[in-house]
Specification:
This protein is an alpha/beta fold and 399 residues long. The chain has 14 helices and 14 strands. α1 crosses α7 and α10 runs antiparallel to α11. Bound molecules: arginine. The site of arginine has 10 residues, from α4, β6 and β7. This is Argininosuccinate synthase.
Length: 399
């Protein structure tokens, strides 16, 4: 039987050329798999047909949008995942899901290899290959762009020689990766990190400077997951989509940062993630109200570690599972409502309420109705400062 290779197919130039190239180099049959993680843009039926036209023996489109929203975006939300305190791990989040479907297709098609179109300079090669190694260590990996001296020009020449239907003439100067959770844009003039982003980079968000009335949205959470918007029940997928639209109209979630890649390179990326940033902003505030202080303080370091782990390609790792178990435990009471005002590029919390609130009006108030016994504070402060006082006395004694 002829060997089969399952290729992660985006529909772009590199992976289109890879179909024929892999077949030629290895004599194998290529099965193209495109995973729909809400990237939008091109009709995926067209992408599928392109794979067949480029010589794939089979091409599949997997609708993984619900799975991505519920099984990947929601855990990221519960962990307030933002790499380097800013980037909501958009691309990093989709890779393990794509890997799952590649492995599934490899099993169904009796494939021996999995192929991807990542370069050797980025994080995604790591995420794909570490994921495949964890789920199906017997599968071997083919990475033509990285391992075979592939250049853009060679790929274009190859496509033209063979008349591949890949529209190389309207090539974008940017490298773009997008999904339900957000959008990443790099390369082109952005590689000069002094250059400011320009309007044409953006597609999920409007210019935050456009004059527009603020939009107010109330998000209801149940155990850290959004379940209603303005009182209308939503699935995770609907919540993200709707907030992408509403927050996007106000330019929420634009980011421009130089980030530390796992391979050691610093790179500049422009992101837009309106829904993710609106949801994380609201979720964090509901945690402030419902999560006990020491759990909340500890969780901040867990959140950071979670984002780094997922960024670094270790979704399929015991530590991520263990951190998720911790996060799950912390979300038991993260239920209630947060009111957000979306305006001028910002999502601002203006109200919060919860049956599980730890906010006690009687303890907090400076007006009448105060239930806090201030006479207790004096002794508390005295003992709290005792170690510092002892140390300071000692230092004075010894000069
Ligand atoms: N730097 C981001 C990450 O490593 C995005 C990678 C893909 N970006 C792109 N523009 N193609 O998660």
């Amino acid at each position: 039987m002829t060997d089969r290779v399952v290729l992660a197919y985006s529909g772009g130039l590199d992976t289109s050329v890879a179909i024929g190239w892999i077949a030629e180099q290895t004599g194998a049959e290529v099965v193209a798999v495109t995973v729909d993680v809400g990237q939008g843009g091109e009709d995926l039926a067209v992408v599928r047909q392109r794979a067949l036209d480029c010589g794939a023996v089979a091409a599949e489109v997997v609708d993984a949008r619900e799975e991505f929203a519920a099984g990947f975006c929601m855990p990221a939300l519960r962990a307030n995942a933002r790499y380097m305190d800013r980037y909501p791990v958009v691309s990093a989040l989709s890779r393990p899901l794509i890997v799952r479907h590649l492995v599934d297709a490899a099993l169904r098609h009796d494939a021996t290899h999995v192929a991807h179109g990542c370069t050797g300079k980025g994080n995604d090669q790591v995420r794909f290959e570490v994921g495949i190694g964890a789920l199906a260590p017997w599968l071997r990996v083919i990475a033509p762009v990285r391992d075979s001296g592939w250049t853009r020009d060679k790929a274009v020449a190859y496509a033209q020689e063979r008349g591949l239907p890949v529209g190389v003439t309207h090539r974008s100067p940017y490298s773009i990766d997008q999904n339900l959770w957000g959008r990443a844009v790099e390369t082109g003039f952005l590689e000069d990190i002094w250059n400011a982003p320009i309007a044409e980079l953006y597609s999920y968000t409007q210019d935050p400077g456009l004059p527009r009335d603020p939009d107010t949205v109330v998000i209801t959470f149940d155990q850290g997951v959004p379940v209603a918007l303005d009182g209308e029940t939503v699935t995770p997928l609907q919540a993200i989509r709707e907030l992408n639209r509403r927050a996007g109209e106000h330019g929420v979630g634009r980011l421009d940062l130089v980030e530390d890649r796992l391979v050691g390179i610093k790179s500049r990326e422009v992101y837009e993630a309106p829904g993710a940033i609106a949801l994380i902003t609201a979720h964090q505030e509901l945690e402030n109200v419902t999560v006990e202080r020491d759990v909340a303080r500890f969780k901040r370091s867990v959140d950071q570690r979670w984002a780094e782990l997922v960024y670094d390609g270790l979704w399929f790792s015991p530590l991520r599972q263990a951190l998720d178990a911790f996060v799950d435990e912390t979300q038991r009471h993260v239920s209630g409502e947060v009111r957000l005002v979306l305006h001028g590029g910002k999502a601002v919390v203006t109200g919060r309420r919860s049956e599980a609130s730890l906010y006690d009006f009687g303890l907090a108030t400076y007006d009448s109705g105060d239930t806090f016994d201030q006479s207790l504070a004096r002794g508390f402060v005295e003992l709290w400062g005792l170690p510092s006082r002892l140390a300071a006395d000692r230092d004075r004694r010894l000069g």
